[in-house]
Amino acid sequence: MIFRSFAYLALLLLSFWLHLQLSSALGFAQQWHLIWGATPHGFPEFQYLYASLPRAILALSIGATLGFCGSLLQQMTQNHLASPLTLGLSAGAWLALVVTGVWAPTILAAHGAWVAMGGALIASLFIWIIAAKQGLNGFSIILTGIAVNILCATLASAFILLHEQATLSLFIWGAGDLTQTDWHWVKWLVPKLIILPIIMLIAHRPLTLLKLGEQNARARGMSIGVTMLVIGFAILWLIGSAIAAVGVIGFISLLAPNLARYLGSRRSLDELIFSSLLGAILLLVTDSIAVLAGQYSDQVIPSGSTATLIGAPFLIILLRQQMKASDHTSLQLPKSLFTWSNRTALVLLALIGASVLFSLTYSPSYSLVSHHTLWQFHWPNQTLWHLRWPALLTATGSGIGMSVAGVILQRLIKNPLASPGMMGLTAGSTLVLVLYAMFFEQAITSVNPIIAYSGSLAALCILLLLGRKHHFAPGSLILTGIALTAAMDGVIQFFLAQGNDDVYSITRWMSGSIYNVTGTKSLWLIFCVTGFTAISFVFRDWLTLLAASDPLAQSLGVRPQRARLTLLILAALLVSSVTAFVGPIAFIGLIAPHMAVMLGAKKTAQQLWTAALLGTLLMLIADWLARTIAYPAQLPTGIIAAVIGSVYLVFLMIKSQSPH
What we know:
This protein is mainly alpha-helical. It has two domains: 58-322, Orthogonal Bundle (ABC transporter involved in vitamin B12 uptake, BtuC); 390-657, Orthogonal Bundle (ABC transporter involved in vitamin B12 uptake, BtuC). It has 27 helices and two strands. A two-stranded antiparallel sheet has the order 1-2. A hairpin with a 6-residue loop joins strand 1 (362-366) and strand 2. Helix 17 (425-439) crosses helix 18 (449-467) and helix 25 crosses helix 26 (604-628). The longest helix is centred in the first third of the chain and has 35 residues, at 43-77. The protein starts with a helix and ends with a helix. Mean pLDDT is 82; it is low at 325-330. It is a multi-pass membrane protein.
């Protein structure tokens, strides 16, 4: 214990010293004199004293806070995957900061910690209400937290896109960066962290009792509710203060406690102390890497992106170790509510036709006479028609492509969560498209779709390789896919943090915008999607047999491995086609196959084209809402689809809690 403590302290001091050496050109003797009060002369000395030193101190403080909060959460829930990131607290705090920054910037400036704490509190209460029935130590609360995380992040993106000028500085803040820190933020943050050692001293005994189980803890006189309330508010305050100071840095709070346990911490107090030390070391190291990469690339590299690149692979490794048999069947497809018939198809076709007509004819317009927004039916003029028909065609192609891909994935892998977004196919295409556009200085909307195909196929191969251990279990697969997505997002964040005009075009494209798709591109999208969808109907018997069992497929002359690979490539091609022309629109691939089953489409062919019709309908509705809900501004269609999808995922989690 004593030796380990000295080793951690020595490593912390070494990390702090190395951070200062990387961020300053001064020698050690000069740095030492400045620390002890020497008057600075020249820019290097001022830069060291007023930028490098407070940045290192802030990295140490924030890292220790994140490690401590992660340990508190994991010990309180007895769940080694619990963290402010996976439980949605960070996203809730970030959404509250973004909304307040747009609507009440003076309140944000004066009470940022309280604002972030309020957002995290609302998110935590929402997650607790949904997941409490199945306990806090399983995958259920993590899946619920991620659903809420996606919802909050999507809403925050919508606010940023609607208020571009007001949120210009939030790009780098949202990525989690320490670059713009000075002594002001150190003086602001450190007093708010005074409760950390106090909570550490009073919380270790209740946490030790919780390891014995709630019943044993109550038998020894512990009040579970009061303990949870006190610790919970402490976590919210500390996390809110950290996010208000430097933005979202997610994976440190997940890594540090698990690393502390791996290195031998068994007692609650030991884990709290060493998680804090390791959190500080990890953030100092990751921020040093960000400093070094920034010097090499002459770009501002957000510290949160570096932490994500290190933390996402760790989450995948942790998932492979922590997955339990009880998590394999935690989610089920919704039951059929209707009996499928030809009338179902006619109703869907009629609804699609009505949606097209409604979208074309009913829209808001601004009256120069009354100076009000008027809602009325009117047939679009020629100019508006040339703008609207490519968008409608693109929405149709996107809905069909993602829905058919979702059916293929869910049937092939026998997993109700196996959708393009959850499995990382969309993220793979997005990553390679963004990197190609960056390195070759090309507009992202003009990149060859073949580039997107390669990214989607690569992501699929990685995910399937990682998912085989647990037979593509729903909980493990979604978390692995999101971890891959987070790693890919970390690669992109340093470019988005620059805050120039290109950032907004890429951000809007990454939100799934169909408004810049030309008529020629929309026709190409329909051509690609129609062709790949037709091929999927040709292989529908393969899909039926593989969904049943490999031995059955082999007994009927189908080679399972070759057939499965062919169908997976087909799904990747569908996803890549949509992503290349429109951007990432993924949740349709989760919702539409489920809705098709609920309408009674149980056979493969029935589910394929019923899901295609439903995906088209959902995208047409999302397109109309995106154009009108914030008129005269327009939201990307993918934002609306993501909100619908994340709400549906929360609904799916609520259904999984209810007794069957």
